[in-house]
Design a protein that fits this description.
Elements lengths: L8 H4 L10 E6 L2 E8 L2 E9 L15 E2 L2
Antiparallel strand pairs: 1-2, 2-3, 3-4
Length: 68
């Protein structure tokens, strides 16, 4: 069977939920951060915000360590 779709493979075939047990959503002023908890610290994976200026803030860059 061939499946033609505009959606990504992750949408059509969702990954296992256990892959995301170490991820947490943290509230920040103006949006949310998806972070991976690594011991006592958080590592930013994704910024979710509606304000475009938040994406220019180097504090919220993916890969940065974040302390809530």
């Amino acid at each position: 069977m061939i499946l033609y779709t505009y959606q990504s493979s992750h949408t059509v075939f969702p990954p296992d939920e256990q892959d995301f047990t170490s991820y947490e959503m943290l509230e920040i002023p103006g949006g949310q951060l998806m972070c991976e908890k690594n011991g006592e610290e958080y590592i930013i994976c994704r910024l979710l915000a509606t304000d475009p200026n938040m994406y220019l803030n180097p504090e919220y860059t993916p890969g940065q360590k974040y302390k809530p």
